[in-house]
Protein: Outer membrane lipoprotein carrier protein LolA
Organism: Stenotrophomonas oahuensis
Amino acid sequence: MSRLWRTLGVLILLSVFAPVAAAADVDLVKQRVAKVGVLRGDFTQEKQVTGFKNPLRSQGRFVLAQDHGVIWTTLKPFPSEVVVTRDRILSRQSDGSTRVELDAKQQPAMRSVNAIMFALMSGDAQALSAQFTVKVDALPNNGWKMQLSPRSAMLGKVFTGLKLSGDRYVREVEITEANQDVTRIHFASMSETPAALSAEEGGKFE
């Protein structure tokens, strides 16, 4: 995930902002997706690399805090943690060592990385439509799916398309890269409680 955020941050500076998606599309997702301060859940990630038979799999848990950022904790196959804030991306390894991967003081695009990452995980169609052409379909039981196509040629050199689907929450994200590698992320066991970060969670953003 950190590689994806890093790439997005660089390209956002180079891409051209375009008009947002059709209001009806944006409104549909706005009405169906929950707006919560803190959301916790589990994830499973599968990446199919071109030329390899078996996909790369990982799983773990996440904390999405609207006022702070995201804690992305991989449990399998190798423990690690990525913490994304407004100003930086931190990578923590299983031995407790920490490495600053991106710092907004050195790379101002970091602030845009945060915005795009939040938009993907929260299903914010309006934010995503600044960089992608957005098509939204309504599904039964308050469900929806969203297809994203890059607006700029520069962004198209990295992604050929993204797909999101969900209901009250984003449930699945599929990312197809220009080299045809495909990453699928499934979110489960989402919880809006407790509504505040624990002391341990809050400390990770400091």
The first strand starts at residue 38 and ends at 48. The chain is about 25% helix and 45% strand. The chain has one domain: 2-196. Residues 2-14 form the longest helix (13 residues).
